[in-house]
# Entry
Amino acid sequence: MSPTATITQLKGASQQPEAETDCVANRIGTSGLALREKLIFEHSVQGRQGYSLPALDVPNAELSEALNREEIVGFPEVSEVDVVRHFTRLSTWNYGLDSGFYPLGSCTMKYNPKVNETVARLPGLAGCHPHTPEHLSQGALGLMFDLQNALAEISGFDAVTLQPAAGAHGELTGVQMIRAWHESRGNSRKKVLIPDTAHGTNPATAALCGYDVVPIASGDSGILSAETVAEYMNDDVAALMVTNPNTLGLFESDIRKICDIVHQGGGLVYCDGANLNALMGIARPGDMGMDVMHFNLHKTFSTPHGGGGPGAGPVGVSEKLIPFLPKPVVVHEDGRYRLDFDRPQSFGRMRSFFGNFGIMVRGWAYILTMGGAGLKQASEMAVLNANYIRARLEGVYHLPYKNRSLHEAVFSDKQLGGGCHTLDLAKRLIDYGYHPPTIYFPLVVHGSIMIEPTETESKEVLDEFCEAMLEIARESMNQPELLLNAPSLTAVGRLDETAAARNPRLCYKPAE
Amino acid sequence: MSPTATITQLKGASQQPEAETDCVANRIGTSGLALREKLIFEHSVQGRQGYSLPALDVPNAELSEALNREEIVGFPEVSEVDVVRHFTRLSTWNYGLDSGFYPLGSCTMKYNPKVNETVARLPGLAGCHPHTPEHLSQGALGLMFDLQNALAEISGFDAVTLQPAAGAHGELTGVQMIRAWHESRGNSRKKVLIPDTAHGTNPATAALCGYDVVPIASGDSGILSAETVAEYMNDDVAALMVTNPNTLGLFESDIRKICDIVHQGGGLVYCDGANLNALMGIARPGDMGMDVMHFNLHKTFSTPHGGGGPGAGPVGVSEKLIPFLPKPVVVHEDGRYRLDFDRPQSFGRMRSFFGNFGIMVRGWAYILTMGGAGLKQASEMAVLNANYIRARLEGVYHLPYKNRSLHEAVFSDKQLGGGCHTLDLAKRLIDYGYHPPTIYFPLVVHGSIMIEPTETESKEVLDEFCEAMLEIARESMNQPELLLNAPSLTAVGRLDETAAARNPRLCYKPAE
Amino acid sequence: MRYIPHTDEDVRQMLETIGVNSTEDLFTEIPQEVRLGRPLDLSAPMSETEVIKEMKRLAAQNATAETHSTFLGGGAYNHFIPSVIDQLISRSEFYTAYTPYQPEISQGTLQAIYEYQTLICQLTGMEVSNASMYDGASACAEAVLMAARATRRKKVLLATSLHPEYRETVATYCRHLNIELLDVPYLETGKLDQQSLASLLDKETAAVVAGYPNFFGVIEELAPLADAAHDVGALLVTAVAEPVALGKIKSPGELGADIVVGEGQSFGMPVSYGGPGVGFFAARQKTVRSMPGRLVGATRDKDGKTGYVLTLSTREQHIRREKATSNICSNQGLCVLIAAIYLSLLGKQGLKEVASQNLAKAEYAKQAISALPGFSIPFSGPTFNEFVVEVPGDVDALLLKLEERGILAGLPLKRYFAGMEQRLLVCVTEQNTREEIETLVDALKGGAA
Amino acid sequence: MRYIPHTDEDVRQMLETIGVNSTEDLFTEIPQEVRLGRPLDLSAPMSETEVIKEMKRLAAQNATAETHSTFLGGGAYNHFIPSVIDQLISRSEFYTAYTPYQPEISQGTLQAIYEYQTLICQLTGMEVSNASMYDGASACAEAVLMAARATRRKKVLLATSLHPEYRETVATYCRHLNIELLDVPYLETGKLDQQSLASLLDKETAAVVAGYPNFFGVIEELAPLADAAHDVGALLVTAVAEPVALGKIKSPGELGADIVVGEGQSFGMPVSYGGPGVGFFAARQKTVRSMPGRLVGATRDKDGKTGYVLTLSTREQHIRREKATSNICSNQGLCVLIAAIYLSLLGKQGLKEVASQNLAKAEYAKQAISALPGFSIPFSGPTFNEFVVEVPGDVDALLLKLEERGILAGLPLKRYFAGMEQRLLVCVTEQNTREEIETLVDALKGGAA
Ligand SMILES: Cc1ncc(COP(=O)(O)O)c(C=O)c1O
Ligand SMILES: Cc1ncc(COP(=O)(O)O)c(C=O)c1O
# Structure
């Protein structure tokens, strides 16, 4: 018998490779055919073409030799079919929301409606140039105006700018306005208070506005107490940045009192609105006393994440901050929409043009589809889903904070067995066919496992996911190597991130 | 040590499962994560919705109870996200042309250009109703008229109908015309000659027109000899159906003489144009003396196969058959396009309306893109590619016919080792990341392996494929079980087709 | 050329491997006398920009539901198409794949067809559905051939009220197969005349074929037709050109039909100047082996996992050649997928609701038009989303007047029926708003005045 | 609600598992006094049909390159977009994925970013590129901050000819960071005044920032700027608002730039009323650790297979918080993919050819317009696909006249520059045919008469 025959027999026998014993009930992940694909540069063959252009219909023109470029060294030369197969294959190594459950906490991975994609591609919307005269872009301006108003209504703020390109960009816009407000009052406070549960963008943003960051411990309950804030508040504090519900999925229930304290101390309150999906139609940050907040259209308002963007991070403000909004602002006068550039107190602008308009179109389509009632139902069902997961996993997974969760539930890896950690659990979930939750954030939970299901997932999906989580917890006790060696089904195994950082290879070179 | 630990160790050691030892150079297939998916019916939950409709804006109306349906028993109730994930996951179990090399012989799996998909979706083309008055559908009619003429020019025929929906439908159209022609001459011949290399649709079509099929053996060279045809020709023979180049990829070089013989005998010659991709700009079936031919826009003219259709099977005819074309025909008069229904000798119609217009749009976009020169280049490179594969595999794979190949090369499994057959080779190619060639057709080659690369594949792709073929031939000698057990990387293994036919389960029933 | 990857160097190397000097040498088997000694007389290659421009130029010459209020039906229907569909069918694993001959890497297509077959069975009330025919008309023709095969009889009764293009197609398919076609007239209700039917039916009759709804939009009473046919051992074939109706009217299966065919374009496909749509074809279990077309069945792999394959292919041309049940090979694959997605999205509730809306809107229009002076509704039978209108004065002149108001008011029936010079077939779907309907009614009134 | 799957029964069961009586009970932590005691004042939910109709209504109110001949540039450019792009970016594995935090199931996104980074390096002549910034303007602002970090200096010289919105954005970002911004004027050539620059440069200077081409379309001479900056230890930052130019003009890297930023919208993205595009950001290897934004690097798995990961994240906010190099988190992911596909399709030859066409067409228009009586070209420096025109008479009246002929003739500069009341920025790309250009010229002539 040849050695291969032996292997084959072994395979046929009870000692099947793990990839083939997927008899776990409801396990979605299994092993299948994947196709390898090299780098696009490795497909390049001199003289191949993937484009076509009409023949030049005017005389050719040349630049002086000093300006003229001879060649773009290294650029690929490939056919159209090469490009299509290349990126098609690459896509198959990804996992998207349309592939399955994607419970990334803090990211609100809700379903991205297809009609939004359709309307964003309408030539009249995608093809309108930002320098088109206002009277010939009333559709675009009108959409922006209506979206501004709808977001203001949802959040309880008095005005909204759509300029920022993402959440962090919105934060910077908001804190710029806070600073401009203080300065307009001759006030040069130096500090921003930020709870330890905050996302990293909060302190980074404060620093970009020249503020010193003062971290505040959130304490045992996971939420800020009014007393703590009062302790930290003084007349060098420009603002408190708070996420509500916070990154533990908990509502900051002292928020009214906290806002009062900050306001009485002469500061303003910034709301990180990343978690607005818990609150629509239920409670409004503007009504809680917050002064400024960013939205993430790519979270709460269903626009796709696109593998990291583009998003849109509109910012809502209370009355007193309106003069400081970035330029321009869309206004409606005499039945016409217009861009208002004449805003002397504006703090400036955060980017070119008016924001990620294509994303606004999608967000507006979502709001039209849902209506007020639908948005409220979305928040209710998002919270129901998170609490359902919490109820099903509590006990088996350690739950560090006991307050009622809103849109997400945060566990720790404390009760995993076999020396397994959150990372191992995350990778093992991949083998089960799931995108892992957010891990190791928020920092206040050691080995944090942050699960945000969103409202677009059904009970069946949640049940299957919970079974998988429970099964993996059992595996960690009995067969920890299944977690430690995970993922085992993906075309590449666990990647060495340390090596990547030690010797960064950031750009392909043929010699490589 | 637990039993699982042993397995894990085994896996880590030299006896890795086959799926993980993919060190073969240039092997594209590998093992990756696949996601399971149940039937859509199994997702159904009473009350779920995947649709939206505007509210009814007129009074409701009801049918009498005798007509009124209560319920569509068994129909699913699912959300939009269920549907999107369901079909997205299903798609990932498929292999398309955009996934990789797809050398299905006789199918001309050339790249399906993306611009064709774009233009076919233009609202003015996709949204035009077939009963739109002619003066309001000049664009559609003009496109059809121009496409008719272009196909006539490419094939050397005098007129073209676009009505048939696919190749076989075109065959039926063509043979109907042949029969109508004979009948118009008071002639009721009963037989159609068909070489044994022909596709099954040829005899099936002849039978559908009430003809008896007389098979002709193609002989040692793989092509028809004029002598053989002369032997069979008599005045009961209505037509000869011939594929040129034939399904062995060989040009019927006696064709002129053969046509003469048939014509002299009072018959007509039908050309199965499935293999036109070998001839564009080089030689025209009309010029060879053939009387009628179908095109496959979904082969030669790059329209997608769609997992089995829709295609389009226009038919070209020589002068004498024009009166018998199916109704209506698009004509151009006084600067206007018009549908001509007034064709007293027409044999009838093959379907509703005018054909698969959406496919015609794609075919026309392709012809515009390629131009005459491009089409010729396509044929030349298609033939070059086939001959290159032939040259690289000849010797290792048995080549039953030695004539110069045109667009495809046909091998047999005679030289495979280890008791492996064509089916095993085909399945093993899947593990290597390729769609298999056409197998067991044409019937004249025992264990036929029919490879048609088309012109859109690069030398690199062909080289990698040939390496894989050669490697598999070696495997058949040394490790035949790799072929016999293939495919090993797909989510389902080799499926039991016999069981499927013995006990047909064609419709899901919940009890199932 | 962006679709052809060959560089000069590639060609040189490949020719060398082959052992010839030029591509010309590859064509030596083609005798010079049949060569085309000149370039093809076609336009020069166009860039992508130019192709798109040209296609937009053509597109702009066509009227559509975006440029006009349209009330055209008669075999092709304007229904809402959810955005989901185009996104899913644009997945290249679906649309760039061939027929699923290699099941292990075609499970996506195969499972989708299996689901489609099931949906069609549920919708029509039948037991088996094939994987599609070209369109409703050719499916109808194949149904007649199947009925003749299954009964070994050669006489078929076709309702005159069946879609005229279906009738023509049936005639074409039957012409050389010794099948005798006889017409069954319709009554003033627009329904098939059961008495005439009774007098035509006999032991030679293979099938009775009726539209459901028929070409006039009238909903036939199928049960008595089925009974009459079955009494003489004939089959009832029903052809459904507008299958959205099946969300609201009883399934043909429930009423006794033996073969149900139809056009599936309404299920998520654009009207596309008449194609591609999809012919559906469903029948009883006992006749499965005489069905035409492909069938997908469930089976298992060696480890017992469920999978799907093309099956019962001994009925088909590639195995049985001249003895096959049909010559069909490629069918309407991607349109099958569209129908499966559409029906999954709409589901049990949705198809019912969309059908109800069609019924209600058509009824609203019908009543309003029937109340117009000079206009009448010639057929009294119940209709679904289409109905025939008798208009005063010259039909063509009237239609032109309505076109000027941006309305395509309907299909003039004179092309199909002698004696229907004054008749229009008007179709109203869920896509027509009340406002559009009212504008139509108003315009008809004004146009006829 | 088709996006929310919960049935009443689901809700009931889930509440039971949770152990509460109603969804209301889940919100107990939200004090009543901050509750919204009323429904949101938004419109009622719309069906898909209605949403599409409403969006088409809005779309119809906007002018586009389909409704008008357009010569608008100034930071957003009409270029041809190959159909391939939309098909590929519509693959849901790409567009519905999040940032690739879990590399093993994000290799598609990661490899595509790695390829994008490489393409940007090749195009700009730099050594490292990040995975994108929001847009050209914010990338420019981040470049200034990085230059200040890298040099530990606080003075930055901004060309007055830099895109005014980039200048404003830079000013906004720098305002509270003690960075002093000084303007460098331009000459009659439209190029930066090297003498003024020399007088402003000193050992406190962190960077010189220039457009390339600049806002007037003029191609700056970068080499002397780089030399001057380097002489005092400052960095040269170049901002490329129209990167198609880099197919034809020397790369900033070759000419000595230290940081190259720009707007990538030209690479396959529609103008989309100004966004989303993509800010690209490239620099020298030695400064990689002070770069803002995400970076993708190659690494290996435990079996030695190559894979890609997000790397050097200790620069970023999620690790370093207030000490991060930037606060950016989400960037312009999908637009990165678009740029990678566009540049792969065009490739070495294509980008050069499209750039040459832009140059030739703009040159053709420029010469024709400069020959018109009353019109002149105020800047004498070489331009790429944009140029400034001095028009006679009232600019607004002229533009309105051209609009009537279906032409958007250019961007009036008076909004940005005092003293430019008579000036237009005219942009001509490969999308403008000779015929369109000639109509423009003719209309300008007629409009000014
Ligand atoms: C709580 C929180 N704040 C801010 C952000 C930053 O948002 P963006 O990525 O849109 O910049 C995130 C994103 O994950 C977040 O979760
Ligand atoms: C030689 C030949 N003839 C006819 C056909 C039938 O064409 P279609 O599938 O378009 O009906 C085929 C299809 O494979 C073929 O290869």
